[in-house]
Amino acid sequence: MSASVNEKVLDGDVESAYTLNELRPPPASSVPLPRRPNTLSLGHRRGESNSRARIIGEFRTLSIHVTDTKEGRPDKSTQKDVSDLSELEWHNLSSDEVATRVGVSPKTGLDTPMAARRLTKNGKNVISPPPRNLPKKIFFYVFGGFGSLLFLGGIVCFVAWRPLGGPHPPPANLALAVILFLVILLQTGFNAWQDYSTGRVMASIAGMLPTDILVTRDGETFNLPAANLVLGDIVKITLGSKVPADLRLIEISSDLRFDRSILTGESNAIAATIDATDINFMESRNIALQGTLCTSGSGVGICVGLGDHTVFGRIAKQATSERTSPTPLQLEIRRFVFLIALFAFLVASVIVILWAAWLRRDYPGFISVPTLLVDLVSVAVAFIPEGLPICVTLSLTVVAGVMRKSNILCKSLSTVESLGSVNVILSDKTGTLTTNKMAVASVAVGCKAYPVQEALAMAIKSESDGESVKALAAVAGLCNDALFDDSSCEKGGDPMPIAMRKVHGDATDSALLRFSEEASSVSYLRDSWEEVGKLAFNSKNKFALKLFRSKSTNPSYPIFDSDNYSSSDLLLLVKGAPDVLMGRCSNFIDASGTIWPLDHPTIANVSSIQEELASRGQRVLLLAKRIVTPNNFNQEDLDSNPEDHLVALNTDLCIVGLLALVDPPRDDTAHTVSVSRRAGIRFAMVTGDFALTAAAIARQVGIITTPVAEVQHLSDLPYNKPLDEIPEFNSDKEPDDKLTSIILSGPEIMTMTESQWKQVLTFDELVFARTSPQQKLQIVKTFQAGGCTVAVTGDGVNDAPALKQADVGVAVAGGSEVAMEAADLILLSDFSSIITGIEYGRLCFENLRKSILYLLPAGSFSELMPVVVNVLFGLPQALSSIQMIIICVATDTLPALSLVYEKPEADLLLRKPRDRKKDRLVNWKLFVQAYSLGTIESLASMVGAFYFGFILNGVPFSALWLKYGNYDVDPDLLAEVTNKAQSIYFFNLVIMQWFNLLSTRTRRLSVFQQNPFIGSKTRNVYLVPAVICGLGLACFFSYIPVFQNILLTRGVKAQYYFLPMAYGIFLLFVDESRKWWNRGHPKSILARIAW
């Protein structure tokens, strides 16, 4: 059938399916793999680097989800991309069937009219930029949080001014409306600042995609802009080409390889195939993924995914999308806003009901409609702490700045607080808990282990056992990608000590290279052998191998006479995990170099040595070799599919020996673990290393403290224990309570039931060994599902999915770029700086609570009382609405902001982590504390207003009480006296808040223990300036004539400054007495209800 006939038959179905679900049926979208950028197309700018790392993290996470779904383990939260990608079948179809389903002839390609129609219908092959949603953002900048309430209050004040204000509307109502809108404008600016982000990566992502590509249409091959590709196009890939779309390969050369590092982070090129190699579309080698680079060979593929529907397009969308789920702090702020709005609505409703049912009927001249509206606005103003949004933003910024000075890079302000609520830390071992500076510590040859120096001495002296040590050192030097830096090999003409030479390579290879060089010259050794092929170590295989051909007819180490090596043979050298390679071995070399069959006693002996070394915290590698005869080797197979051919050769190995490497813990790791555990945080190890090695390191750093005999394993957990019989984790253990420990391995994790997982979550000390990246991700999700706030620390590419999934991902500087991009925090120096992060994360939440507690007594309760007293008892309002706004926005805001600079209390890291479900930013305990202080402030201010403001100025209290506007006083006198009384009330609150500020600085400690003026660990240099500025603003609005005329404010006499100080000292004394009692009686009722 011709191409045109195919297109006529299938065109409608294919295009409609592509539009609806990226080519169904069968599911036919594309899943391309992006590539590592080459020097011709990409620079090394920081933005591009970040984008590449972000793409890799997204790819790894998405690929894990797709594989799980294909294998029948879909995640409950699986997103649409995972579902769609798991249904793709292009890689499983034959080349002819793929061509038929997209309506194209592999020889002639699409015809031009068909391509034009598809381009018109489906659009260009480009990745859409992320939507900016500016209108939506601006809307929430203005109306988010308290903005909607303030905006409604401003409108009401405008209405109360005109038209309801009559022919002579009071200017105070207009001024109040203007001030409310100014507050909204100020909060909008801070909201925009908080939301501002510079993490735009679309420009660099666009630079990763090709511009022109070779395509076949109408039987002719020509260059076409990649953006004009359509579904079914036949694309030719050559050396150096970037893949322009997701391609199903239908023709390949034997040496076709793709660099997928931009997606996977792996530097080795991947050989292409025509047949499927994996159930996962994203991992199958017969799919060329968009953005990847052809490093050798050539091939032809059919476009099966374009633009946003490619794997690269999906990942780019994820990498540039905003976080959809709110952070814990955002949830707490929303809850607080809801509570405040609810309280304001309830009180306003009561006032409206009282006015409509009682006051309007019995006292029609007391509260007019405009006055009622202003009263309602006053209620809203009284409840809303207008300075809170500024406090939130500044608090996060200040704490992030402190963390930056502590060498902690915080990418997102909201992450700061999340770190403070972490109650589980899952930490990688190598490079995180340890220095990642490995050295060979022990050597095992001929079923006997030696310290490394003793083994090297035997090799140098050419003792009988030394021959096998030399062979082992030769394998370590040859099966190795590390290189000495030539510039560091000599110093002043003298050879540099091997331990001091600079090495280019990973930590393991560097240690092996130094060990090999100590035994003999590695450069001479490598000059004697020609590398034919290699397979790098990866987390799936857990071994690395190299294939060599001798350059001489009489090769030396690691060849022995008993090997019967001939010049036509090849030498296969392997290093890797003993538990993986042991099953591939059939022989072993004894100490003298004689080859013996590998029997069960020898296997038991080798395993015993491995366990002994691992129990010391040493990482054990098995080194083996095989003589490959010409009958077992095919050069064409090696060229066409090197990985599969090399893996096939990796059998019938001969054990040369074991090398045990030690990676010492960082100096600060034990201290970090200890402080974390005292802070109520479970510190677990998640590593790919052996269980014995992991357990040994865990004991060294304090992750496991229970006796060896008491450590449990999977076999100790009932298989199907009813879930309702499994208790929750007890976080309230006393110091003398017995702790529980468990060690699990990756293979065991694969067999665990839901019941066993729930039992695991109840342990105090946990070590997960031999884990894969998928299992690390599973462990994080399991703890999160159990209600834990999880922090993950790591430094490798394979840690990226777990770092991204965690509530807080913490990367160690110097690790992989992918890990640092996936993380929320980066530790730039010591690992112990994570303690600083936890402390200041907690401090951020604590200081926000202190700011709220400071704002509520005067800015909420004491402002509400004048309105309530006015409505219920008919008294003049003791505080004007404008003065309420001045308190909330001006005089209270600066002292509240000074609280965000408070230093940590001494016991902050001795408290349990905050439970996000129970420990709220604002709870009933905080309201009790705030309104208790507010009661003292409002009573003292009421006395000041009515006694010193009204009575001493000739207006008896009896002339006001229950008069409801029918006051027996000259109206002009009453108006002026009311203005003075309101100002007395106003200044009384402003000054009493100074002592409230001192009171709320600490939760448990005395003001003398946390001295705000003396001591670098407790001093707050912003406290006094904030108080002075607050008083200055109060005087500014009260003493300047223009404000007195418009806002009806008044200045007060000096005596009314000192009386509030006396009241404030009493308030501080009451709260200091409460803290003193609670410190001495921590289990008393008063202590339990303390905020």
Automatic annotation (TrEMBL):
Transmembrane segments: 138-161, 173-193, 336-358, 378-403, 852-875, 881-901, 922-952, 983-1000, 1021-1042, 1054-1070
GO BP terms: intracellular potassium ion homeostasis; intracellular sodium ion homeostasis; potassium ion import across plasma membrane; proton transmembrane transport; sodium ion export across plasma membrane
Superkingdom to which the source organism belongs: Eukaryota
Recorded topology in the membrane: Multi-pass membrane protein
Database matches in SUPFAM superfamilies: Calcium ATPase, transduction domain A (SSF81653), Calcium ATPase, transmembrane domain M (SSF81665), HAD-like (SSF56784), Metal cation-transporting ATPase, ATP-binding domain N (SSF81660)
Keyword tags: ATP-binding, Cell membrane, Membrane, Nucleotide-binding, Translocase, Transmembrane, Transmembrane helix
Matching Pfam families: Cation_ATPase (PF13246), Cation_ATPase_C (PF00689), Cation_ATPase_N (PF00690), E1-E2_ATPase (PF00122)
Annotated protein name in UniProt: Cation-transporting P-type ATPase N-terminal domain-containing protein
